[in-house]
Amino acid sequence: YPSTNEMQRRVLASIKLTSVRSFSAASKASAEAPLGFIGLGHMGGKMVENLSKDGRKVLVFDASKDAIQKVVAASAAGNKSVSQASMEEIAQKCSVIFSMLPNDQVVSSVTESLIKGNTTGNSFTHISCSTISPSSARRLAETHKNAGHKLITAPVFARPDGIAKRQATWMLGGEETGRALAGSLLSSGGNIVDMGNDVGAANVVKLCGNFLIAASIESIGEAMALAEKNGVDRERVMSILSSSIFDCLIYKGYGQRVSQRDHRPGGFSLALGLKDVSLVSQAARETDTPMPFLSVLLDRYVSAKAKGRADLDWSAIGMDIAEDAGIDVSKDVARNKKDVQEGNTY
């Protein structure tokens, strides 16, 4: 069998990775113009830091004043290139606007505000890095087009630490020149995958990926419960598996979290996991695609949320799986909730 690194190399070689050189012209254009950025959560904040370090001026907005202050303060300690602005100011002053938002409804609301706030007559390119439904992406692209603007979808595979380390993979969908512009600004943060003119395609890939991650978390949790119920140390079992036949990022990262029951927030919350699994379900229904195992995941995330674990990492469904096997995880639940209360995050 080929090594894991060789397999990863083959996969990357088989998909359409857009060369950074093809974005050079777009990168040089308007290099001094400020970028807009809306949504400064764990992911958005790290993206702004990267853009700032790349020498870009960024006008930022978030519904949370604390989130704005945190990002602006980080910039003040460096090159002071990040400034607070209203959505109206961003719509008027920025020809390129990024957003990293929690769901379809918020993306729709922000789109409406940007279009309404753009009173200058100048067009803008909205680069949406949010995970939303493919149908919403296509609908919003038409909304932008009808108003004289562009929507480019750019969902990402990475947790906040991966964004900070510039190890992300971005899928780009939408009009060609807009994709080139988005690629020029995101390429320093990792790999760019060109999904072509269909703005929905990038989000299809993202939902497929997140479905597979959720399924992996469920499988890991079931395997760890089986090991523990048979009197075998679950952490040792996971270490053996993730260093041999499952030597890859997802099984290493989530294997550690599930086997150690370390579900501190700061990466991807269980609430967002439920949202994304629900989006997969919506896309499946809209296209008559049966996904039997998806039903298990939906119930699992609903159950975990009902138990008050929405703020934990989405790997926290591992504790639900253990509970179903009759394993007492009360101390682990209390420890993780204490981490939330004390702000202990990844």
Automatic annotation (TrEMBL):
Domain of life: Eukaryota
Pathway in which the depicted protein is active: Amino-acid degradation; L-valine degradation
Keywords of the record: Branched-chain amino acid catabolism, NAD, Oxidoreductase
GO biological process: branched-chain amino acid catabolic process
Catalysed conversion reaction: 3-hydroxy-2-methylpropanoate + NAD(+) = 2-methyl-3-oxopropanoate + NADH + H(+)
EC primary class: oxidoreductase
Pfam families attached to this UniProt entry: NAD_binding_11, NAD_binding_2
Domain 6-phosphogluconate dehydrogenase NADP-binding, chain residue ranges per copy: 35-192
Single Gene Ontology MF annotation: NADP binding
EC number assigned by the record: 1.1.1.31
Active-site residues (renumbered): K206
Domain 3-hydroxyisobutyrate dehydrogenase-like NAD-binding: 200-317
PANTHER family in UniProt: 3-HYDROXYISOBUTYRATE DEHYDROGENASE, MITOCHONDRIAL, 3-HYDROXYISOBUTYRATE DEHYDROGENASE-RELATED
Family: Belongs to the HIBADH-related family. 3-hydroxyisobutyrate dehydrogenase subfamily.
Protein name: 3-hydroxyisobutyrate dehydrogenase
Classification lineage: Eukaryota, Sar, Stramenopiles, Ochrophyta, Chrysophyceae
